[in-house]
Amino acid sequence: MKKYCKWLVSSIIAFTVAIAFVMFFVQLEKPLTIEASEISSAISGVRTLDNFPTPKLQNPERILGPAGEIFEFSTCNRGDLGFTIANAQIPSGAGPLPHIHHYTNEWFWTPQGDLELFQSVKEYPNLNQPATDDQGGRTTVYTIATKPNQITYSPKYHVHGFVNTSSETRPLIFVWIQDETSPKYPFNDGGIREYFEDVGIPIKDLKQLPPITDEARGKFVTLAPKYGINQSNYFLKYVSSVSDQPPSALANLSNDQGLTKIIDAINAYNQGDKSVRCF
Amino acid sequence: MKKYCKWLVSSIIAFTVAIAFVMFFVQLEKPLTIEASEISSAISGVRTLDNFPTPKLQNPERILGPAGEIFEFSTCNRGDLGFTIANAQIPSGAGPLPHIHHYTNEWFWTPQGDLELFQSVKEYPNLNQPATDDQGGRTTVYTIATKPNQITYSPKYHVHGFVNTSSETRPLIFVWIQDETSPKYPFNDGGIREYFEDVGIPIKDLKQLPPITDEARGKFVTLAPKYGINQSNYFLKYVSSVSDQPPSALANLSNDQGLTKIIDAINAYNQGDKSVRCF
């Protein structure tokens, strides 16, 4: 019996060592499994906001985008803080092609959902090296099918964009905060409203929208770098692949400190606080 | 010594059984590894053609596409065989958004490469159920960065399209063969030339290209079903993800019998064979 007992013990030890040995290498070869488990926690962690305040302006500036988007702009400054908000209506199928911001960080608030955002993990910090094959290289973008009231953060340097995948016009609030590395633009907002004023089409009457010309569409792309933006003119120019499973590192991007400062400033402005200037 | 020997033998047996046990489950969980080995064989199997003959016509019909593509058409009939060829020039960044043919099967011959084709594995056999979220469902398309002289087959029912990813205009020869299920169209070509004649802009003088209007661009989408085509109007309408690793089943699609019939008919026509009619 004693002999069998020793055999048994040595067998169990050998079995355990062998399993540990193989499991170690399996672990090394399987980062995908780890990623998959992170994804579900990312999905369950959708960030929402019940409401997003906008500054109450008398005559907000309205601009028509290249695919019929209606943007209603407001810009606020409070000390060093500068940001621009666009309260927008996005027609079915519309939305910007993949692009990169260098001087702003952006949030998208989607009160009704239905907008499919996409964003890269890879960052492109050089304005002169956009994500093309012959420059910074194309990348994978990850889609996020937004839920009602979802707030999504998309900082500078990432390739991003969105499209309205529903058959109806959908609302979207864009928020761009000036990045600390931005050169000085007149509105202290990282140049984003200046960009739309330069390339967009002014709307005088919402009931009579102006025509969108090819010239205007072209300017959205060609003049973008002047405002710290790389703007592609076809979907696959910056994008080599698209995945609908964003890694948690991307889905969990946030900048709650920045967002809180913005919401505080808007609420203060709407309550008559003279430390905030909005226009 | 005998005792140690028995321990050793039993240890080796237990170790081996444990490794076999774990490896079995590792194998079960890793279909991706198997797929990766298939991909490389698909990539090495790029099909090329040194030349693609086109029918010698006196005044080929020329039509301007929605993104400035110049199409020079020829259609041939020989018995039951009906096909249309477009000898085309594709500007940088141009190419059709994802679409589905129901009455034609198509080849792309890329004499200089530089065109990025994309195609789905999933098939959509119902013209009234395109690949949208609320109909047939969106799908994955796989990109193929074409090499010079590559010939790629893309049959009916698959979502497909392409874009010129280079910074220069690139040549492309499209070949569409009438599918046996096609209803009767005037040119016996599955309705494809009839489609371009209906929605495209006639070119009278290559030195003075006509302007492309939004109306014309819209017709490429809205009139497509009349000619057995589902045409999307933004990249992600039919597409949920994009992969640059086509499975071999897709990369190896071919119809050499159909292609041979077409090339034989063109050569016969160019040699004066009256059994072939081209126009």
Textual characterization of the structure:
The structure is a homodimer of 279-residue chains. With 279 residues, chain A is an alpha+beta fold. Chain A is 28% helix and 29% strand. Chain A has six helices and 14 strands. The first copy, chain A, is elongated. At the A-B interface, helix 1 and strand 13 of A face helix 1 and strand 13 of B.
In short:
The structure is a homodimer of 279-residue chains. Helix content of chain A is 28%, strand content 29%.
Radius of gyration of chain A: 24 Å
User: How many H/I helical runs of chain A?
Assistant: 6
Q: Count of DSSP E strands of chain A? A: 14
Q: In whole angstroms, how far apart are the ends of chain A? A: 91 Å
- Quaternary state of this entry equals homodimer
The shape of chain A is elongated
Helix content bin of chain A: 25-40%
Q: How would you characterize the largest beta sheet of chain A?
A: 8 strands, antiparallel
The H-and-E topology of chain A, N to C, reads as: HHEEEEEEEEEEHEHEEHHE
Arithmetic mean of pLDDT of chain A: 89
